[in-house]
Amino acid sequence: MKRIVIGLLAVFVIAGLALAGWYYRPWSPYSPASITALDNPEEYVTTFQRMDEILPSATIAATDPAPLARNVQPLDVSYEWDGETRTLADYLERARATGLTVLHDGEIAFQYFAYGADAQSRFTSWSVGKSFVATLIAMALDEGLIESLDDPAATYAPEYEGSYYGTVSLRHLLMMSAGIDFNEEYSPERPSDVRPFFFNAFIMGRSPDQLARAFGASGETPGEHLHYASTNTQVLSAVVRNVFGGSLAEIMQERLWGPLQMSADATWLQHVPGDNGVAVGYCCLQATSEDYARMGQFYLQDGVWNGTRLLPEGWVTEATRPVSPAHEPGGTPGYGPRGYGLHFWIPEGHDGEYYFAGVYGQYIWVDERRGVVIAQNAGDPQWGRLGAEVFAVMRAIAETVSPLESEAGPAEAIEEPVLDAPLGTDAEEMDGPVEEAVE
Questions:
Q1: Distance CA 144, CA 141 (A)
Q2: Which of 41, 165, 173, 274 has its CA 20 to 30 A from that of 324?
Q3: pTM for the whole thing?
Q4: How far apart are CA 437 and CA 185, in angstroms?
């Protein structure tokens, strides 16, 4: 009996040491233990500046950096909200903003940093990264690597062959109308699919593609509803990797970071270190405040950079306007006064305004009429409480930097093309108006 007890104790000790080794992984710079920082909301403001220290990533090199011109001026911004006059300084404090870069006519007009951040800090994007993936889809469409956005995902991403996602069209994925049974809930207190999706990739080392393909149909007809699901973008990122050939970081470097002459290296998180790592494609780009703003400027210039068109004509217009009645601001309960295009958000009362958005306060706001771009990063665990006040802040900044009566520059040169059919569709097969075709 004594030998049995000693043997059992030895087994428990060995198992405990093995579990501790797996959890802390002293041989690796990444471990499940380090990921616990993501469950400390008070530390988000600093944690979101070092995500690629906590989790595995691949580098996106700035191969031809060209910092943006600077014409920095003091920015005295106030706005009306909830019956009172508020200031930008007050908003930035309440939003727990870590970085803010404002561009006017392509020049840096204002910058702000807090919580130890500076111009060289790499801030995580969260779902702002979704719009970068959509941009790569547009480039692939323009180059003929994707024949039609109405093709099913499995045509270009064999990883999803035989799954429900394999049957969903690229257009419906971009619209966030995939009809997928997925719960995009960020609070740890409520049932969620997105939280275990994220942590299973990094803690358990499971491929995010394999995790995504496990989700099935919700019963909604694809294309008829707005149902935001991060897994949609994971599928699109697999399409990008397959049609261009390479990792998401490599493709970002070749197609965006190099051509746009981004000012600094960036990173994209992947589920394990090394060449076997698969990018978590629905989020997880890390870049400087200036380079996020530069991406917004690229869209403001209708996908043209240094005189070269990099996006198909009409893409910016189609992607940044509501694509169905359900995608109009207020068109779907639960999304508040905002609408959706093709992986871009659209504010209520929009007039040439749209934005990239990520959880906890990440934004790239574009105002076409005023030629203004605003990039914000933050670590606000209660970002949702600000709601549409963010729209008022962004509009106040844009109006202060570029009042309409003195509007000039590249924003005036942008004309909205008239689309006979949505991009990536065979126009000869279209019977009705654009709106009907998208639905």
A1: 5
A2: 165
A3: 0.88
A4: 31
